[in-house]
Amino acid sequence: MADAVLEALWKNVLDRWDDDAVHGSFIDHCQQSDQLVEAAVRYRGMAGDRERGQQAQKRLNAIAALAMARLEGLRSGEKREPTRVAAYLLIAMFVAATIGLLAYLQGQTP
Prior knowledge:
By secondary structure, the chain is an all-alpha fold. About 80% of the residues lie in helices and about 0% in strands.
């Protein structure tokens, strides 16, 4: 089932890319609705864009930090469904792999 709020917020992000508050609203909604994976996927899709890539990577790092904080909360005794833990681990691994790939590709540039 599609989240109409998420879609509207993402459209707003694309339309107002340089507005930090718009990115914050989108990521906050994703965090509150347990959709950080979806946020990471969308920003990862923008990471290869020459004009928007740096901002997208910044947002991916923020999402990874949120996911790691959530995992730490789970580790310290907060009760959540096991599938949510797996999703947060997936986000963290995805972001780490993306950062590694970008570092590798930057080393390949002449």
